[in-house]
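Technical annex B. To support the medicinal chemistry partners, we prepared a structural model of the target in complex with pyridoxal-5'-phosphate, based solely on the information shown next.
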Amino acid sequence: MATTFHSTRSTTDSLTAKQAIRKGIADDGGLFVSDSLGQTKVDIADLAGKTYQEIASDVLGALLPDFTAEELAQCIADAYGSQWSDERITPLKPLGEDYILELFNGPTSAFKDVALQILPRFMAHTTPSDGDPNEKIMILTATSGDTGKAALAGFADAPGTAITVFYPESKVSQVQELQMTTQIGANVNVAAVEGNFDDAQSAVKRIFGDKILAERLAKDSHVVLSSANSINVGRLVPQVVYYFSAYAQLLADQVINVGDEVEFVVPTGNFGDILAGYYAKLLGLPVKHLVVASDKNNVLFDFLTTGTYNRQRPFFQTISPSMDILISSNLERMLYYFSEGDTRLIAMLMNDLNKWGTYEIPEELLAKIRQLFGCGWANEDQVREMIADCWNKNHYVIDPHTACAYFVAQQMPRDPLTPRVILSTASPYKFPRVVNEALGFDATGTDFECMDVLARETGTTAPAALRGLEHAKVRFNTVVPIDGMERFVANAAEAL
Ligand SMILES: *Cc1c(COP(=O)(O)O)cnc(C)c1O
């Protein structure tokens, strides 16, 4: 049976994987899902000893069957090559009685590189649906920090694409801002926005929904807008690979035998990372539990304990900014699969969320979800304590996002028979000031001085791309008001 994709909110669409990747989000606002997910399993018996790239070709082959093996091989080779500082791509390391899966060895030192290094390569193999052979995709993204840079790095000079990134002025770290404003590439545009992340994100959503602008961009500039957010299938599926890679490394290290179950603890914001773990389970990976670790914005914790999702709550800007999220978009896909494809239920829940800011799922559905998904959260004091605790116990430095998961793992009862893998989503050098404060090191200087202190005190090395930002040339210094974002996008499209 051919794999086709439709919206989580209706079954009327029927798109190939390539079309779904190019389009990003369904017309009714739902996310693309495939009902054949899990029909093709990935063979786990011969995982041990396979390279990341070999595992990627097995997993992506099962998830994106309309890409040829040659196309996938090319995408994988280009995306997971020498731009990674570890040849295992996502190395697994022992951490006390647990394991840590490092997802941050890519070019921007955050886990989003895993997906955003390959998404532009996928897109290069898609073709315009309505026949304009000159059509270019412009990626439009609002970022609270990490996504913007990872998307810029992935799409810079990628054929047939351009990218525009907005970030909230003065609301990202010095390192994060420089990562974006120094980005090279002829097809990239970056602007700071006078407002917070939610303002920028809402404006981007409005721009996506503006039919008149869309027509003008298509007609005058051959440009269609698309999203690099984790709602895109092409961003989600590459993340399935590292769950298999973790399992392969546990097998190779003889921690487990084929078929043994493993537990994953995942720092969670938009629910993309952890959802990929669920996809891995559907593809045959023996996953016992997936544990959602949140920061102080604990909307998912409340949902998974009560069955009520309620975004009507204060928003906290924390020291783990990439998890500061009140609407976890990818949760919609999980609900779709757990409700056995009940598009009417999903449409109703999402309508409630839009209208009332809240929804409630049936009790039996919650019970089913809770058999697989655990949850916990850490406040900022606990995050700081855990950064220190992990360093003191293991001589391993973790960033504030990973520290949320580390905290949740410490709180859980340990099952001695089930290895536990904590996913590490960012290099501590992206947040050197907070990390130094937590570890009691000098944190009074610039971010770069903080990096040097962290390196000296811990005997670790800052990623060269981060340390080098101090003297990199700033290319972008535009600040736009919220209502100037649309014009900025139109100008960028015209200049292509
Ligand atoms: C994006 C991000 C997360 C959250 O991942 P989701 O897929 O949105 O749940 C966690 N940590 C870091 C460092 C991130 O950049």
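Notes passed to the chemistry partners:
The first strand starts at residue 5 and ends at 7.
Residues 67 and 391 are 44 Å apart (CA to CA).
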